[in-house]
Amino acid sequence: MRNSPEVRARLPGERVVFGRDQPMPLDSGVALGPFTVAYRTYGRLNAEKSNAILVCHALTGDQFMAETHPITGKPGWWDQVVGPGLPLDTDRYFVLCANVLGGCMGTTGPSDPDPATGKPYGLQFPVVTIADMVRAQKLLIDHLGIGKLFCVIGGSMGGMQVLQWAAAYPERVFAAVPIACAARHSAQNIAFHEVGRQAIMADPDWCGGDYLNQGRNPSRGLSVARMAAHITYLSEAALHRKFGRNLQDRSQLTYGFEADFQVESYLRHQGSTFVDRFDANAYLYITRAMDYFDLAAEHEGSLAKAFQGTAVRFCLVSFTGDWLFPTRESKLIVNALNAVAANVSFVEIESDAGHDAFLLDVPEFHRTLAGFLAGCAEHRGLGRS
Amino acid sequence: MPADAVIDQAATAPAAAAPAGIRIDLQLIADMIRPGTRVLDIGCGDGALLDYLVHFRQVDGRGMELSQAGVNACVAQGLSVIQGDADTDLAHYPDRAFDYAVLSQTLQATHNPLAVLRQLTRIGQRAIVSFPNFGHWRVRWHLGAMGRMPLTPTLPASWYDTPNIHLCTIRDFFELCRSSGIAIERAIAIDAKGRPRPIRSLQLANLLGEQGLFLLKGRG
User: Fold this and answer.
1) Residues of A in contact with B62 (CB under 8 A)
2) What is the pLDDT, as a whole number, of residue B17?
3) Is B82 inside any structural domain?
4) Complex ipTM, two decimals?
5) pTM of the model
6) Cα distances (Å, whole numbers) of residue A228 to A51, A218, A269, A332, B180
7) What CATH number is given to the structural domain containing B79?
8) What is the extent of the structural domain holding B85?
9) Is the Cβ pair A372, B75 closer than 8 Å?
């Protein structure tokens, strides 16, 4: 397994430890500390510290967004978006991304040692929420001396964090870009996550979550979880275009349970490469955090109340082919923002790629990001590029 | 209101020439808007008015546009615009959220113009509405002499592919406002050469105005 604690200890990037003297209170009531936040930065923070963009990654993303991934060797998940001359232009902006709390890429999560025992937390790790993840990010922003983020931006779970940032710390955010997300996880979304969690927990190698101490890894369960989730990230059109019913390395059906179809082979590959870089317990904790997210519920059932009086400039983006976080979810957020006369833009991008569109080369999406940021930069006094 | 009522013209429309790139009617709307105010431009199209207001009037401007292509173009140029339908989506905004709610060349394309006008005067301290005048002599001539649906510079689309479903005349608009208790603060007719004329004689304005432009007072 490439993602072991030893490998993680050598990952590139910055790390900072919080909660040594004063543990951080979590939504669950537990206080966490000390814990580490691992992050990467691109570009330079200006003298006024007014050009910082915080990118929030999705469920299985991480902080290595614009560089070769140190474990997989693949390009960063947003290397078409973050960089010199790109929409998140690192010649102008200071762009940073932190691994989420509960993650497995350097920020403390269930696979890291519990300071009380010296052994991996496993299920002793407290359940974390999206708000907890954002609390940890805020400690990092405080640590970097950044009073107000120029922009918080992210897709999917990252979009949930963006909404949480804007609702909880509006004075610390100038602009917010929630992409392909929702203000709450739907029953259908929770259902898919439950399938993934049950697959992991049904794997005998999971060992009640104690697999690291027992020298085992529930890689089959995690792989199935990834396969199920991956289907939700694509659209029927995208799957059909890529694979149709084409057979894999054969001309006839085997009348067995080999991967006869290309789509099966593809999903198996997705599953098996995922287990090399991701921790099974982290998957349980992070999917749980998404399931618990419900911004309206935290504001007496009114999403508009979450944004009352906000001065944050919002730009919401959805994709036509996304059935995991469909456009209507973004429109609910737009309506709530209109109800408090917030400054909001909303763009629906034509794409049949499914939920994953925000990770792909979609020029209109990238134009939207660049244009919105340029407009905000002008208002923030960063000058028009 | 009698047909030829003289509207209060204490603040007459300025005769400023439009700079290159902004249509005369948009310039006239911009001239009605105090700098530094909050403006919602409904049916903002490609964002020409919003862009002008933001950059030359220091306005806190927002837009709503039906076509997704228009919205995307606006946002990509740094304007705050959402996709939305004037008939249904204005209900989400709170009372008096904006200093001005602008509806330029869009009223005639709405399903329920009166409901939209009521929303405009609810959301805005002021509402600014412009529309093509179906009472213009050229329109009358087209229909009267030719017996065909008019094609004019302000009504360029054929009857079968026009987005306009509720065309009206300047006189009709006056009448609607009067009967609905919507107060008109300023009324301007724009002639075929793009010259603004304060409406003093409703009869003449209705004949010679190619467009009507109105500043309405918000309710409450």
Assistant:
1) 343-344
2) 45
3) yes
4) 0.86
5) 0.93
6) 39, 16, 13, 27, 58
7) 3.40.50.150
8) 24-133+168-217
9) yes
